[in-house]
Amino acid sequence: MRRSIPGLVLALTVVAAAQAAGQEPAQADGPHLVASEVSLSRNDAVLRVELSDGRELHWSLRDGQAFIDGTAVGDAPRGSALDASWRELLNRAMETPAASLPALLVDWEAPSGNGASAGSALDRSLEEAFATLQAAPVDAATAEAQAPPVPSAPAAPGFSDDSVSRLVEQITALQSHIKELESQAARAHTRNDNAFSRFFGHIGRGIAGILSVLVTYAVLFGIGFATIVLGGRRFIEGVGDTARHATVRSGLVGLAASFLVVPAFVLGIIALVISIIGIPALLVFVPLFPLAVVLAVLLGYLGVAHAAGEAFAERRFSGEEWYRKGNSYYFLLSGLGLLLALFLSAHILELTGPLLGFLQGILMFLGVVLTWAVATIGLGAVLISRAGTRPVTSDPFSAAEPSMEETHV
What we know:
- Helices cover 67% and strands 8% of the residues.
- The chain is of the alpha+beta class.
- It has 2 domains: 4-139, no CATH class; 210-395, no CATH class.
- The protein starts with a helix and ends with a helix.
């Protein structure tokens, strides 16, 4: 595609020079246009002109910048309004005779929007360069009568008006073909970029999701580990025992608490405002109440994770092996892994792309529901057990009657 541009430029230069030569006897004494050259490619849009006084001027858009005689005058991004208007102007300049080209360039108005400063600079430069070339041409008959007789030069072999017309038609067809090839290449490049970005986008999001789950797992275990080391083991175990033995009760209490936490906060503020204690207690209540709710939910989550790990250990080990290998750290470690397994599995499936996207969505939904249920049950267990200080070791809703075997003993 790029190889055809020099031929196009050379042909345009020859045509413009021939037309300028045909118009030269009719120009005024001032400087006039001798030749023009247009060069269009994917990244460049260049206009070069040569005047009769020997000056060479050129204006171009190259690599997102606008240039006047090699000096950058502003930004002109590819695909912007300035870029489209400038390329349209150069396309029209290819088909405009040399005598009408200055008027075409002077009449061009730079569009507003992105690249407006660069467009204004190009517009002013074109007007300054071609405004003096707008004098009306001398009438052909008058010029012929006033000019001394000039011997006619022999015509170049094989070069006639028909040849020039055919050459212009071929150039126009070639230009259309080049535009079509550029459009096809741009569409293919866009398709390849989209496929590439989609493929690696799924991998990147999957790896980021896996890392986020692992970081969450490490942070939660670190908080639980620090709580156990600092003497909070009985609180976590108390909440966990309550969540295991009074699961339904804990869930109902936690659900009710989640609906009443905001009204309780608002009513507490109102009560303190109208009470004798007043503003000093309010300054303590406002920040500590949300903090207490967050800590209660976190303690409840860790307690349920501890209970889940303990239940998993009971199924995995038996007898003395369970007492030997089971401890709070192991229960917390395995329980957190069970609670976060759905999220980890969903992000692993995301690495495969959109093929298993439906299954990934189901796993993410189940993970969110499980997290909500664990937080609700944990919050209720914290409230029932007084933050683990009074654990419930049996289900209060279960029947307390003796079994049939015990009645016959």
